[in-house]
Amino acid sequence: MRNDKISVIIAIYNVAEYLEQCLESVRHQTYKNLEIICVDDGSVDGSAEICDRYAVADSRFIVIHKENGGECSARNFGLNICSGSYISFIDGDDWLEPRMYERLLELILQDEKIGISMCGHSMDYEDRTVMMINNKKVPEKIVSPMREFLYYIYRRDEYKNVTNYLWAKLFRAEYFTGNKGIRFPIDLTVGHDVVVGALCYLRTEYVIYTDSALYHYRQRQGSVMHNLDRRLKGLGSCVAYERVINLYKKNGISFKILKYVERFYVYHASVLLKMAYQVGDAESVMALKTKIKKYLLVYILTNLDHPDRIIDMIRNLIRKD
To answer: Taking Cα atoms as reference points, which of 273, 265, 251, 267 lies closest to residue 317?
Structure first.
């Protein structure tokens, strides 16, 4: 196998409790030609010192300390200095199986037209690990074109082990380099992964996948995805999916796939709607109801096997408080 360099970009903010496990899992990968870029986004909990310690012990670690600007800003800093042929993104509180990069590189090198390789994952809670399992078979072969594989990404009921997140994936660096290189949208607090993912998918001709669970996705209450105020601010996840829908429509993605992206949009809007009710944010309630109604019919038609979801959605739309 070729010895191409992989740039691993880790955005880090106040995850000292989990950071060593993350960095150790990268440091001890069976594939060694790594450039490990740790972007400390203004941490105040000792994360910065942990990063510096690893940089002293292992020359593959590159540490950047910056003022807090959010995950998108941190990842963009990493992209601006990376030099690998392939790029991977990790959350600073997650960790990897030892062979993840060896396996992802082995897959992506099978054909020069493959732009992304991806693997399965587990959801790791404080007291248990839940292995994600696809309810239907995903072909573990080169899929042509990438646009067909979007079907597996967005049909989460059947394919829980195929994610739209950027972790558990290896990307060709060319997607992020040059004047037209992809960057993270700094105006989004949440949802930026789905936008950057979509931009990468549209540039990719082939993708390859294995359902081996090589990435550990930590579930903790203090993370951004569990922070109610940050998720409601600007309705970020809705804005993100609106951008993806517009991108896919502009680029001719088939309705067979697009309807499931629209279902995701309604789902995220409904989650935010419940949060808005919870905090008494009447303005967001009105805005979210309008967003949901735009694709409500699509949501209903794609959830006929889940009448409980449809009932719950209607109840929240007609709720008055």
So the answer is: 273
Q: In total, how many domains does the chain have?
A: 2
Residue 296 lies in a domain: yes
Q: What is the pLDDT of residue 18?
A: 97
Q: Which residue, among 209, 250, 52, 13, has the nearest Cα to 117 in the 3D structure?
A: 209
Ordered mean pLDDT values, 10 residues apiece, the chain (321 residues): 93 97 98 98 98 98 97 97 98 97 96 95 94 90 83 94 95 94 93 96 95 94 56 79 97 96 95 90 93 97 97 93 73
Return phi, psi of residue 273, to 5°: -60, -45
pLDDT at 225: 47
Cross-strand bridge partners of residue 209:
118
Give the pLDDT score at 144: 63
By three-state DSSP, how is residue 222 classified?
coil
Cα distance between residue 162 and residue 133, in whole Å: 9
Do residues 11 and 75 make contact, with C-beta atoms less than 8 angstroms apart?
Answer: yes
pLDDT at 231: 65
- State the first-to-last Cα distance of the chain, in angstroms, to the nearest integer: 61
Q: Report yes or no on whether pTM surpasses 0.85.
A: yes
**In the 8-state DSSP scheme, what is residue 60?**
T
Contact 104, 220 (CB under 8 A): no
Print the domain residue range for 271.
227-318
Which of 182, 173, 177, 184 lies closest to 84 in space, CA to CA?
173
Structure tokens at 251: 């680029």
The CATH number of the domain where 19 resides is what?
A: 3.90.550.10
- How far apart (Å, rounded) are the C-alpha atoms in residues 244 and 262? 9
Given this model, what pLDDT does residue 223 score? 52
Q: Are the C-beta atoms of 31 and 117 separated by less than 8 Å?
A: no
Three-class SS of 157-179: CCECCCCCCCCCEEEEHHHHCCC
Q: Which residues contact 280 (CB under 8 A, 6 or more apart)?
A: none
